[in-house]
Design brief:
By secondary structure, this protein is α/β, with parallel strands linked by helices. It has helices at about 50-55, 60-70, 75-85, 105-110, 115-130, 135-155, 175-185, 195-210, 230-235, 255-265, 300-315, 350-365, 395-410, 420-425, 435-440, and strands spanning about 25, 45-50, 95-100, 130-135, 165-170, 220-225, 240, 245-250, 250-255, 325-330, 330-340, 340-350, 370-375. A hairpin with a 2-residue loop joins strand 10 (about 325-330) and strand 11.
């Protein structure tokens, strides 16, 4: 049987490699090479500024800029179009993994509960031709558990190891980019080595899931739906690439806003779409319920690690955390006292102004924290510029507040209670302390020379 595109002439695209740092780039070119009349119709132009993505002008090369802008909706439709052609050698299994902080965005846009929005988003993506849609929270389970374990190890050895504490969270790619390329060796030894949920999901999809499906990693096209543009750059990291198969763990990142743009162009409302449950990594089983982690704006690393450390190190059960707000609501701390002494001091530092203040404290030897949850976006992940920014570039505060309230209504689950994670530790990783755990769930950071006067950058 012939497919609908058999008689159509193939053509190739000439990539325009403009590298001006603050020049807007059309990630969806209305004059693209694919003049297809199938349902993969042309989308409106979307412009992204590098200032939306990264900490400063020192953080990106022109080659990376080009590769970032190649991650857009058109990449999704390119693969969908190839899958409709007769040449099966070019077919890909399309897998989409959705970040939990993206779901409240769709819930708010369509006046749905977060659970309803998740199921309808899954249905919409499958109507496009996506084969599998996964919830990324199973990868966040791994990331939090490995971070907890690493913190306890660092705490127990901090008197012998100079860079053991403070430990900084590793889930935010904007923060990691800034730390590696601007702060360098001052900070990178302190960053937790656990991969972010996005990249652990990449390892799961291109490793465990590929083997379950009897596929080579390069036969899967893996897309992440995320709240911020920084995730696009994270997907390009060399340590998240398998040379044997010429395959990145994550092939493309689309922001929540870019997915919403597809819906607008297709004149689709999620309210009118039937619900379909997320897939799991375990055959025909479906996700039974949507869950979140402690923390209204992020994956809750601070809360989970604090409670775990209090129990593991000091045999203390902490039910609720009481924060002390410092300079602003995005810079706050929480402490644990034992026998009249402060034994744990954690902080949350969101946004680059607060990050800079924390780093300056560290440089002066005045950083007394044991752990800091660092996020590049003021207000946390829900406030990612890929979903919470208005056309004038200002944050949509009403939308963010609505998303926070919706996200808070999702039930909380401890990572330790996820039986699938324990199963994967044994079946996929050969135990909780194996070499494969280090290879699949952890990474290393570069220590490039910092830019001149980098600590004096004003955000």
């Amino acid at each position: 049987m012939k497919c609908e595109n058999c008689t159509k002439k193939e053509c190739s695209k000439k990539q325009k490699n403009g590298d001006q740092q603050n020049t807007p780039v059309d990630v969806l070119d209305s004059d693209s090479e694919n003049h297809e009349t199938s349902e993969f119709h042309r989308l409106a132009n979307a412009k992204i500024f590098l200032s939306d993505c990264l900490a400063c002008d020192n953080c990106i090369t022109s080659d990376e800029a080009v590769r970032i802008f190649q991650q857009n909706q058109k990449e999704l439709f390119r693969v969908l179009s190839l899958n409709k052609k007769c040449d099966t050698s070019k077919h890909k299994v399309l897998a989409v993994s959705v970040c939990p902080q993206s779901l409240p965005y769709f819930a708010a846009k369509f006046n749905l509960s977060v659970t309803e929005a998740a199921k309808k988003l899954c249905s919409f993506l499958k109507s496009l031709g996506v084969h599998y849609v996964f919830d990324i929270t199973i990868a966040a389970d791994f990331s939090i558990l490995e971070s907890q374990k690493e913190f306890v190890q660092r705490y127990n050895h901090h008197h012998q190891e100079e860079h053991a504490l403070p430990m900084f969270a590793s889930a935010c790619p904007g923060w990691i980019q800034y730390a590696e390329r601007v702060l360098s060796s001052l900070v990178t030894p302190h960053i937790c080595t656990a991969k972010s949920p996005q990249q652990i999901m990449g390892s799961l999809i291109k490793g465990y899931f590929a083997r379950q499906q009897n596929l080579f990693p390069d036969k899967i096209f893996h897309i992440i739906v995320a709240p911020c543009y920084d995730k696009k750059l994270e997907a390009l990291r060399e340590d998240f690439y398998t040379p044997l198969y010429n395959s990145q763990d994550v092939d493309c990142v689309l922001t929540s806003g870019e997915v919403f743009q597809i819906m607008e162009q297709r004149n689709v409302s999620l309210k009118e779409i039937p619900e379909v449950a997320f897939d799991t990594l375990f055959g025909e089983q479906k996700e039974s319920e949507l869950i979140r982690y402690d923390g209204r704006r992020s994956d809750g690393y601070l809360e989970h690690i604090f409670k775990h450390a209090a129990k593991e190190l000091f045999d203390t059960d902490v039910k609720e955390l009481t924060y002390k707000v410092l300079k602003n609501k995005d810079f706050k701390e929480v402490t644990l006292e034992k026998d009249g002494q402060t034994v744990l001091r954690f902080a949350a530092a969101y946004g680059f102004r607060n990050i800079q203040n924390m780093v300056l404290r560290m440089k002066k030897g005045k950083c007394s924290y044991h752990f800091v949850e660092v996020l590049a976006c003021p207000g946390g992940c829900l406030n990612g510029k890929g979903q919470a920014e208005m056309e004038d570039g200002k944050p949509n505060r009403a939308l963010v507040k609505q998303m926070e309230d919706m996200y808070a209504a999702v039930p909380v689950r401890l990572p330790e209670t996820n039986g699938y994670v324990q199963k994967l530790y044994q079946e996929w990783l050969e135990g909780m302390d194996s070499v494969k755990v280090q290879e699949s769930l952890h990474t290393k950071y570069s220590t490039e020379k910092p830019a001149a006067n980098s600590l004096d950058i004003k955000w």
